């Protein structure tokens, strides 16, 4: 499928190709939808097999941000940037300064943040050229490391999913199998431990596992054993696509709620979970704490206010599961419906406003 055909199919607004010969910048900014407000989405730096792959990734990620921001209740649209290059050796100050100037040229249609392969320090450099960047250093009045806040949102969303499955949102005594114990999952484990949950964990990083075992009395298992653990909740917090044909039959959990992106390998795996009666908290709804947090920077960051907004992940998961039950559809489809209905309401509202303005202008011209 050609680029314009793809953009037309999924109703993208804009694709910006950026290059700066001196710094080596090669970037793609994709803006999917700005119905709810300016597009917000991070900048990813990655070594792509081809330029076409980079463009496809930017488009796919931008559309995902539209749904994520809409479902989170933010007045923001969806966008994303990918920079082609190796983040370990190709970065330089000139590159991010040049990129910042491209963002500034969009005049607020797109706001960026850190993502895979970029850091707070990179955002600080971009900030020298544009105000349309979030996730910068606290020294500039920003929020800093988003991991603890993302984890807090996942914790709240997990409680909402547990309430749907067990009738109470208490996690005391519940066994949670956590796949991956990186930055976000570590803070999630801290919340779970404090509430009295029992933790079973795994990770390729043995030091990270050791830390969680020692601090939170977790039990460690091998990587492939996490799926078959006798547990109440499976929390995927590492790689995506861990819910697939091989893993789903092994699951003992009644709830799936974790921080990882793109947890379903294919959409049909969400249908399978629904048919099995497993409560699945859609990833882009439950892990939205990070984007909710950086979005607060646009109002002048206030951590207490931001955390209060992140607590709304609980309500958003409840809404998704309510739509799932109401319409008899899997929760991943219900999440899409929640986002699409919100965008549609705003489009209709704006359309009605423009029609009214047109009628008023027409009447005045006849007077």
UniProtKB/TrEMBL annotation:
Which residues are catalytic? 80 (proton donor/acceptor)
For whether the record's keyword set contains Nucleotidyltransferase, the answer is no
What are its E.C. numbers?
1.4.1.9
Which domain of life, per UniProt? Bacteria
| SUPFAM superfamilies (alphabetical) | Aminoacid dehydrogenase-like, N-terminal domain (SSF53223), NAD(P)-binding Rossmann-fold domains (SSF51735)
One molecular function GO term is: nucleotide binding
BP term (GO), one: branched-chain amino acid catabolic process
Glutamate/phenylalanine/leucine/valine/L-tryptophan dehydrogenase C-terminal domain segment(s): 144-351
PROSITE patterns linked to this entry: GLFV_DEHYDROGENASE
Catalyses: L-leucine + NAD(+) + H2O = 4-methyl-2-oxopentanoate + NH4(+) + NADH + H(+)
Pathway listed for it is: Amino-acid degradation; L-leucine degradation; 4-methyl-2-oxopentanoate from L-leucine (dehydrogenase route): step 1/1
Question: Where do the annotations place NAD(+) binding?
Answer: 180-185
Which top class of enzyme applies to this chain?
Answer: oxidoreductase
Per UniProt, the keywords (alphabetical) are: Branched-chain amino acid catabolism, NAD, Nucleotide-binding, Oxidoreductase
Q: Which Gene3D superfamilies match?
A: Leucine Dehydrogenase, chain A, domain 1, NAD(P)-binding Rossmann-like Domain
**Which PANTHER family does the record match to this protein?**
LEUCINE DEHYDROGENASE (PTHR42722), VALINE DEHYDROGENASE (PTHR42722:SF1)
Q: Which family does it belong to?
A: Belongs to the Glu/Leu/Phe/Val dehydrogenases family.
What this protein is called in its record is Leucine dehydrogenase
Organism from which the protein derives: Priestia endophytica
